[in-house]
Amino acid sequence: MQLEQRRAGEALVVAPLEDRLDARVATDFKERMAELIASGNTKIVLDLSRVEFIDSSGLGAIVSSLKRMGGQGDLVVCGLQETTMTMFRLTRMDRVFQVFGNEQQAISALGC
Q1: What share of the chain is helix, strand, coil (3-state, %, to 5)?
Q2: Which terminal CB of the chain, N or C, has fewer other CB atoms within 10 Å?
Q3: Which domains does the chain have, with CATH numbers?
C-alpha cells in the first residue's frame, strides 16, 4: 500500500493513495502506520479523501494504529467520502475518532 506523507507543522499527514482500505491492504497499512508511530510521530492526521471503500479489516487497521499510540499522541481522521463516513457511523467509529471535513481543520484541532 502506498502512503503519501508530509509534515504540516508538528503534525504528520498520512494519505493512502489507493481507493480501497480493505482486507487486501489492511495488514500492510497497519505495518506502515506502526513504523510511523514507532518513529516518534505523535500527531497524525489520516487523510482518507481518496478512499472510496473501507471494510472491517481497514477499520481494524486504523483502530490498531490508534491503540499503538498508547495515549501518547493523537490520531485524527479527515476527508471521509460519504460511503466511508457511513461505515464510520455504522460501526460508531465516528465516536472513537475525531473526524474532520478537511485536512486544515484536522491540523488546527491538533494545535499545529
Answers
A1: 45, 25, 30
A2: C
A3: 3-109 (3.30.750.24)
